[in-house]
Structures are given as structure tokens and as C-alpha cells.
Design a protein that fits this description.
Number of helices: 5
Number of strands: 13
Structural class: mainly beta
Length: about 270
């Protein structure tokens, strides 16, 4: 909690009201990003969201990592959920009414079934249970494998990636840079079963980014939602670790309470 109080200057908006609901630590992330036409991405977004662009392009990100130090406020540690790999496919959006920027996840794969069920229930996120493994080859060198379980068609991601070490340029990304656009996002958006737009606040200190290299042998994530990634090298970044705080999910625009209309009763003659 002290970390939240100390580092909020990079946020474009104040912290969400109330108390955080969950904290996690994300480790050894690869950010792999491809440009995409805004119209192609926009047709897959729920009502109330619009594509957020950088220099006229939408961006699709594939992010493999592993998480640990998972804590739900007021709940004892959950057996079997201490650490596990995760993989997500994401894009960047704005609330059409407020302009609030955030992340929209097309899919999230995780090896922990309990985490998948919890995230679907409380955050309405499109999580999938997957067979996954991450293997460390050296301090900043990893191989990652994911295969979605019970998918009608194989959804596989296989890659090896490595961080190239800190540099002054990426020590802390600044507003207006591509790195800031892709990583400094403090809301996630989803929609519930009724189709209503939902958001959850996020907080973390600025991402400590590094340049990265990667050999992506297979990547079915975008194709699984009907998008063909361009035949070009992705923009790559690596981050060693980061603590993340999440607030409870809430409706973006709660339904107005139904007002009672007084009825005048006229006595019959």
C-alpha cells in the first residue's frame, strides 16, 4: 500500500475511490506489439468503447509472463494459486463518453483453473484454461509454451524471449512515447453477461522496460478472434517484475434507478 501512496504522479487520473481488492506481482513479461488497422480492431469491441490509436494505428499486444504474490483483500492465501504462467491478447481503448483510456483483453490464458474461474466471475474477463509452461534459460532468457484446453481449434503460443538489460532511454517511459501508450494503462475494460460495459481500476509504478529479442515460433491468438497479424516484426519490450493493484470491477454507466411516479387516484362518483 505504501507503494501506491508514493508513486502516483505518472497516472493521467487519480486513484480509483475505495480500497484495492487484489494485488499480484507480474514477472518476466514480454510485450510483443503489432500495428493493426483501427477498423479491424474496432469491430470486435463492445458498445461504449473505441479504439485508442498511436500515430493513426491500433495496436495488438501479446504478453506472456508469470505471476505470483497473489493476495485478495480479506481472504487467506489460496492453496494452489501462489504462482502460475499467463498469456494475454490485448488492445488499447477509450471510453466513448469520458475518453478514459484503458486495456481491452480479447483473451487471457492461464494454467490455474481457480484463477480462470475467479477472473471470469469477478472481473468478467475472457479467461481460458490452458496447458502452459515457462522455463528460464538464464537470468533474462525464457522459453514459453501455451496450448488452450478444450478449444475447437488449436490455440498455441510458443516463443523464446530475452531482455537485453536496462537502458537510460527505457528506464521510465514518458507520456507521448509509444512505450507509455502501450504500457501505462490504469483501467481494464470488459463486459458482463448482459453486455454492459465494466471497468476495473489498476495501479502500479511505471513499467521498468528493457529492449528485448524474441523468436516467436507459433502464435494463434489473433487468428482465434479473426484477425490476421501483419507480416512484420513486432515491437518488443521486456520487464523483469512489477507489483500490481486491482480495484473491484464496476459498471461504467450504472443504470439509473427507476423513479416512482405518484399516481393520483380520483374517487368514483
Amino acid at each position: 500500500m505504501r507503494e501506491i501512496k508514493v508513486r502516483t504522479s505518472q497516472r493521467p487520473r487519480p486513484l480509483p475511490p475505495g480500497r484495492w481488492a487484489m494485488t499480484q506481482r507480474w514477472n518476466d513479461l514480454l510485450f510483443a506489439h503489432w500495428q493493426a488497422p483501427p477498423g479491424v480492431v474496432g469491430r470486435l469491441l463492445p458498445d461504449g468503447l473505441q479504439v485508442d490509436t498511436f500515430q493513426g494505428s491500433a495496436w495488438l499486444g501479446v504478453v506472456p509472463f508469470w505471476m505470483d504474490r497473489i493476495k485478495i483483500r480479506g481472504v487467506p492465501p489460496i492453496p494452489g494459486a501462489r504462482s502460475f504462467p499467463e498469456l494475454n491478447l490485448r488492445t488499447y481503448v477509450r471510453d466513448q463518453h469520458t475518453g478514459m483510456q484503458g486495456v481491452y483483453f480479447f483473451s487471457l490464458d492461464a494454467s490455474n483453473l481457480l484463477a480462470v474461474a475467479g477472473a471470469r466471475t469477478f472481473y468478467h474477463l475472457p479467461y481460458y484454461w490452458a496447458e502452459m509452461r515457462i522455463e528460464q534459460q538464464s537470468e533474462r532468457d525464457f522459453s514459453f509454451y501455451s496450448r488452450r484446453r478444450f478449444a475447437s481449434k488449436p490455440v498455441i503460443f510458443k516463443a523464446r524471449y530475452r531482455g537485453l538489460g536496462p537502458t537510460r532511454k527505457l528506464a521510465e517511459s514518458r507520456n507521448g512515447t509509444l512505450e507509455y501508450f502501450l504500457t501505462e494503462r490504469y483501467y481494464l475494460f470488459s463486459h458482463n453477461r448482459s453486455g454492459e460495459l465494466v471497468r476495473a481500476g489498476i495501479h502500479h509504478v511505471p513499467w521498468p522496460l528493457e529492449d528485448a529479442e524474441a523468436e516467436i515460433e507459433r502464435n494463434d491468438l489473433a487468428e482465434a478472434i479473426g484477425i490476421q497479424l501483419p507480416d512484420q516484426k513486432p515491437v518488443l519490450h521486456y520487464s523483469r517484475r512489477l507489483a500490481v493493484y486491482l480495484w473491484p470491477a464496476e459498471l461504467v454507466r450504472p443504470a439509473l434507478a427507476t423513479r416512482r411516479t405518484p399516481v393520483v387516484v380520483t374517487p368514483s362518483a
